[in-house]
Amino acid sequence: MDRQKRPSEKFNQNSQQADQRGELYSAKDHLLEKKTSWLLKKRKGGKSIWDWLDLLIVPILIATTAGTFTLINVSRQIEISRQLNKIYKQRDKDEKNRNQRNLLVEYMDEISGLVEQKLLNLDDDNSTTQRTIAKARTISILRALDSDRKGELIQFLSTAQLIEADNQVVDLFSANLTNANLKASILRKADLNGTLLFRSNLWGANLIEADLSKAILVKADLEDATLEKANLEKTDLEEANLNRTNLNKANFIGAINIVPVQIKSACNWEQAKFTEGFKQKLAQEPDRKVDCSRWN
What we know:
Elements: H1 2-42, H2 49-116, H3 128-144, H4 147-159, E1 163-164, E2 167-168, H5 260-263, H6 276-284
Antiparallel strand pairs: 1-2
Helix pairs in contact: 2-3, 2-4
């Protein structure tokens, strides 16, 4: 009996194992069905996440590319605008220079013509009117000229001996020479009486025996210039730079707004003329070490 039952029991065991495997497969199928169902739900409207990403990435790329091109275009436009402004400024500068040059040349031609025709002779009573016109023309054009052209005009008049103190043909009294560039100019015996030389550049200028009486030399640069025997009566020298300026025999009687430290920064000031009161102030001012080798 036991032997007969054993095959039966073995069959039953195999049957149970098969049932268990079936249940396991069924459970796996159920789980797969759930996952499939979940994925199908994610594909709402028939589009997966990747589909949505595909749809979004195109406009993002377009927007990014468009933004990049926009930045490049803006940068180019800014650079073009900068270059154009530079060109326009240079053109304006060149045009201004041409106008300045033309004004100066016309003036020089006009004065030269008057001189050639002997219409500015001091010994000719008939030339008085022409000299008056020449003065008016000079005063007027100086207002229109820049610093460099003012300097050129004054140098022209000095070279032509038209503004000599003892033989003045063109009167410069009240002429506006503000900021005039007269650096290293030769103005020996020049009559600059009553001129406005505010902030003018007279560095290294030759002003020997020049008449600067009543002139306004406020903040003028006279460094390394020579004022030997120059007349500075009633001249305003407030904050004028007199470093290493040769003051040998220069006349400062009545000069205004000068201080001892200015004078003692110059050379040969001991031989210049001052009021007694100013000499006392100079005596109280400490001496300064100044290189005056070029004047000795």
